[in-house]
Amino acid sequence: MARAIHFHQTGGPEVLRLEQVEAGEPGPGQARVRHTYIAVNFIDIYFRTGRYPLALPNGLGSDAVGVVEAVGPGVTEVKPGDRVGYLLGPQGAYSDVRVMPAEVLIPLPDGVSDATASTLMMKGMTAQYLFRQVYPLKGGETILYHAAAGGVGLIACQWAKALGVRMIGTVSTDEKAEIARAAGCAEVIVTSREDIAKRVRELTDGQGVPVVYDSVGKDTLMASLDSLAVRGHFVSNGTSSGPVVIDTTLLAVKGSIWMTRPAMIHYATPRPRMLAMADELFGLVQAGKIRSEPSRTYPLSEAAQAHAALESRSTTGATVLVP
């Protein structure tokens, strides 16, 4: 038997339950993975609360690392004993062992620990597709990135520095500002006491930035649009403060703004693309340009407490569960 976090109704963290489940044997094209670390992402909260609907009851989590225990017929992507991570596939990563489609498993290279990899699968791959695919950064740009001290944000700070990009990051407190600066964020705006758009204009000699990466959503929408240069790109990559609702006429008024709401599935598939993304990410880790470790660790049984901490906006960096 295995243990897994399930929820039978949407709601607060209290709906999460630790239950006994049957892991089962892998079938054709499948592999059984025993987890060592499980990532907690803000999207998990969207599923738990019903913002992103799931058929219930269901598991939770899409992002984990571990070791392959067994493979089913026809599997060539991995073999027993391989260290792997994943960020795609069905919900259910909040478990100690599970059967997964082998095609979504990413081999972990030597020199990248399970703990480090657990903070990089979803978060690091998100930074990759935002910076290298959605709006490809070449170096020399000045960009605005919201939530710079978050799990993705701290990786983004380091990636921007490695690319030679001047990143303006937003954070909610002075403490988080110091954390973002230490990670390589060139300029930091503390939103509790500074006007975002006004400060961006000051930092860019009135020009604005060519791209804003906004994972906050409703609360930062207008500040993001007001920070953009003419024909700038508004990348809405999350809605932690609430959904973005916009009259497209506003995009014209603000300077013929381009807007996109990217999803990982459209950038990390098919498999060769996903592996190429991971290669670039892990290459930066192995070169010492990106360093990432869990900021907070909870036992699997305390998934509800991990969710409560993440929702409180008190966390920085990555939160993980340990089976």
Automatic annotation (TrEMBL):
Lineage: Bacteria, Pseudomonadati, Pseudomonadota, Betaproteobacteria, Burkholderiales
Gene3D superfamilies named in the record: Medium-chain alcohol dehydrogenases, catalytic domain (3.90.180.10), NAD(P)-binding Rossmann-like Domain (3.40.50.720)
Entry GO MF terms: mRNA 3'-UTR AU-rich region binding; NADPH binding; quinone reductase (NADPH) activity; zinc ion binding
PROSITE patterns xrefs: QOR_ZETA_CRYSTAL
One Pfam family this sequence matches: ADH_N
GO cellular component, one term: cytosol
Designated name of the protein: Quinone oxidoreductase
Organism whose genome encodes this protein: Ramlibacter ginsenosidimutans
Signal peptide range in chain numbering: none
Lineage top rank: taxon: Bacteria
Keywords from the named record: NADP, Oxidoreductase
Domain Enoyl reductase (ER) span(s) in chain numbering: 11-321
NCBIfam families: PRK10754.1 (NF008024)
